[in-house]
Every structure is written in structure tokens, then in C-alpha cells.
Amino acid sequence: MLNLNKFANHKGWGIRQATLIFCFLYCSSVFAEGLYKYAAIEHLFEQKVGIFVLNAVYKKLDLKIEVSALPAKRAQLEASTGMLDGEVMRIWSYGEQNPQLIRVPTPYYSLNTTAFYLSERSLAIATLSDLQRYKLVVVRGVKHTADITANHNHVEQLNSTDKLLSFVHRGRADVALTNKVDGLIASKRLKLNQQLAHSAPLAVFPLYHYIHEREQHLVAKVDEMIQTMLRSGELAQVTEQAEQQVLNSTH
């Protein structure tokens, strides 16, 4: 137990000043309990939806989250080293590559990897193997497109979906690979939706919440809540609300 008189004398403070400082420090530590800090990849539609949904999951557990939107590589660094408590959502293989992060077993969202290209070119892209003949651009550090293009000879990494589509529009790449909805939103934002076409989804990836091993006590609780909300239909409702909110925020 802290001796306030001794603490005050040591610092040269009055007892009242020492009491106020102690209360501030104590209250700060109390309010910090139950707050977990996660990374999300900046600018991506699915990540913004995930933040909304994950907030709802943690709220039902009487816990709070704080999310930092970061470039994908930095998000991975801060989550895997324990600077943050984990990541909002990543695909399955992310956990294989980052063993310090524990995958919450039940996926709570998904994304569709889709090819965007100039409408006038009418590219024949129906399967992943069709991509081999084209020059591709992907967002740096995003795992679903990194995995798909791992053995591809002509891939350039850029910092955002907007840059991918601009590259394709200017003829500097044949195909931009990204999540379908993210690409549609970006093309509309850039006023390129009339000039760009897109393929049918080439791959579907479930998305999982990842928690640093330091906080592994959370994994079972969060997974159980996701499953409960999934069974009741609440997860679908919250996800629909999240999607609508994110879509509205982009207009």
C-alpha cells in the first residue's frame, strides 16, 4: 500500500497534491482494465466493417476495444510483436505465418478476391490461373492477394486500392486485385466505375480475429460470443448495419 505522507515528502508535495496524483494514476489503471488495443488495415472496406462488428462482440462481453488503422505491414509488426493486442481481422494463413497471434476459431466475415481491369480490354479472367498472363497490382501487405500472387512473375505492390485502380486506368498494369466491395467503392470514389470492369470473385476468404498470445485468455470468450451471435442471427444483423454504415460514410 502506498504511504501518501512518505510519497508527498519525497516529492516535496503537500498531502492533497499527492492524493490527487495517486487518484489520477489509480483511476487511469482501473479504466484501462477491459480495454484491448487492436490494429486494422487502413482504408479497406472489410476492415472498417470488422471494427464495427468486433466492437459489438466485445461490448456484449463488457469489454472495450480501441483500433488503430495502419498500413498492413505496420499492423502486422505491431500486432505480432505485442505492441498491440492483435488484429481486427485477417485470413487463415496469417495465423500460420505469425505464431505469436492466436486465431479466434470462428470466422465472422469474408472477402472476395476480384480482378478489376479496363472495360475496353474485355479481359478473359474466370479463374486464378488466368491471371498468369497479366501484369498485376496489389495492396502491399494484404495477405489474400499476396498468397494468390506468390508465384506470379509480374506483381507490383502499392499502398492503397485507389492507387491500384489508378495504375490500371493509366495502363501501368493490366489487373488490380482486391476485395470486390472495396474495389467497387474505390472505383466510384475515383469516378472510374464506367471505365473499369471486374471479374466474378476468383476466391473467397473467411476472415478471423487474431489475439496476441499474451491475451490468450480472451480467445475462448470471444469465440463463444461470436458463435452465440451467429446462432441467434444477431451477427448477421450487426454485419448488415456495419456494411451500410461504411457504405454511407464513403459517399
UniProtKB/TrEMBL annotation:
The identity of this protein, by name, is Transporter substrate-binding domain-containing protein
Q: Which organism is it from?
A: Agarivorans aestuarii
Organism lineage reads as: Bacteria, Pseudomonadati, Pseudomonadota, Gammaproteobacteria, Alteromonadales
